[in-house]
Design goal:
By secondary structure, the chain is mostly helical. The protein is 72% helix and 0% strand.
């Protein structure tokens, strides 16, 4: 959980510096590590996956979180790799509104997780 918080801190720093692809990357990483910490705390198996929806499916996460987790899992891949060069490189693809959306999702999900770890 401590590393999840550290990654979330990086996401906020990157938002403030305008590196929005990094916000997506570290927001996804923060939630992934938080969910894996929760799995560990509940003595569940360690899953070597990055899909946040699949990681969250074993918990009673509020339903309103799932669309954000699905979006974040998808954008995480786009932020990390140049999948379609016609769309531009990840460093130029995301805007402040994307960053703010995923910072809020990450904040809400991590708060939910911390109440259970």
């Amino acid at each position: 959980m401590e590393q999840a918080e550290a990654d979330f801190g990086k996401a906020k720093v990157l938002r403030d510096s305008g590196d929005f692809d990094g916000v997506i990357f570290y927001s996804q990483q923060a939630i992934e590590k938080g969910l894996k910490a929760l799995r560990f705390r509940k003595d569940m198996s360690f899953l070597k996956i990055h899909d946040l929806v699949k990681l969250a499916s074993d918990f009673n996460l509020p339903e309103e979180f799932f669309s954000g987790l699905d979006d974040l899992s998808s954008f995480y891949i786009e932020a990390r790799y140049c999948l379609g060069i016609e769309d531009g490189i990840p460093a130029n693809k995301f805007i402040l509104e994307d960053a703010e959306k995923f910072i809020k999702i990450t904040e809400d999900v991590l708060k939910w997780i911390k109440e259970r770890v």
